[in-house]
Every structure is written in structure tokens, then in C-alpha cells.
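In this section we walk through a basic example: taking a raw amino acid sequence and producing a predicted 3D structure, encoded as C-alpha cells. The instruction is simple. Fold the sequence below.
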Amino acid sequence: AGPNGAGKSTAMKAVFGMLNVRTGAVRLNGEDITKLTPQARVAKGMAFVPQTSNIFTSMTVEENLEMGAFLRRDDISATMEQVYELFPILREKRLQPAGELSGGQRQQVAVGRALMTKPQVLMLDEPTAGVSPIVMDELFDRIIEVARTGISILMVEQNARQALEIADKGYVLVQGRNAFTDTGKALLDDPEVRRSFLGG
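The resulting C-alpha cell sequence is shown next.
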């Protein structure tokens, strides 16, 4: 969480290897992956859903999901079924071009495609940007369902209050620095965090 320009998306891109890390290291399961390419990080179990341009609009929903499994050499049908169970609307629209879907449905396609890599860590950059409050609530519900499958989720989110309500752990960035770290609940209850970032 944090205000616009705080460095949230930049930090996530650095973790995924899209930007070089000047100091520190990126570790996944104790392994230093700082020097790996984004594709190599995907192979290690990391998935990233960018805020924009995150689906292939001219391809069907199902083709988008299949694209998510491009690195896999095993049978993807069980994972596809899990994605359809998590996002029932995608099963219904699977033969439709993804570009014809609503904003919230497109986000579900993007998350579903990332899940096709069978990640250990799923990174979401502003998954609720530009969607209505009702769609935002539904997306958060789906994200909770994904987390229940055992996948760790790292989410950058401007809607700090809602994000902290579902977060096990929260980080509040200010000018590129981590200003606050605690459980989601503790951050929601912190007077300084409330005053500075949650509107009181």
C-alpha cells in the first residue's frame, strides 16, 4: 500500500526482474534469484500480472490461459480446471475473444493465465485499478480463494483499506521506502497509518 508515486509498482517490477536491483537481493525459497531473467523466475515459481496490457485481446479466454502454460511440458488440463473453478465466468466465456470481456473479467483472465504457470508466488500489480467497487469486491474475493490454494500473493494496491483487510502482512511504502510493516489488521488499527494513508 501507499500513495501514488511511492514506488509500489517499481518495487514489484524489481522483484520480478523487469528492473535491475541496485542493492539487496531477491530470494525465493531461500535461493538468490537476483540475477535471473523474468522468464527464469517464472520457471522457479514466480508469476506476475501487470496492471495494464495483461491479456491477449484477440485470442479467446482459453487461448489466453494456454499461453500462461507456455513453459510447461506436463498436462495442463487439471490446472485449467482449477482456474475455471476459481473463476466460473471464464469457463462460460472460454471461447470468446478476451477483448470483448468487461474490465473485471479481463483481470480474471490475467490472473488465471498467471496461475497456469503453477506459481508458488503470484504478484499482482493494482489488480482492481479502474473497476467498479462491486467488481473490486468480487476480485478481492477471488484473490482470497487463490490464496487458500496455498499460493503466496504479493499485491500492490491503491485501495489500501480493502487490501489490508485481506492481507496477512502489509507494507506501506513512502517515497520508495518501506515506512510500515505489520499484519494487515495492525496496520488498519495504527493511528499514523490511518491518518496518513487511510483518510483518518
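Looking at the output, two observations stand out. The beta strands are 27-28, 31-32, 46-49, 121-125, 152-156, 169-174, 177-183. Residues 8-197 form a domain with the Rossmann fold fold (CATH 3.40.50.300). In the next section we compare this with other chains.
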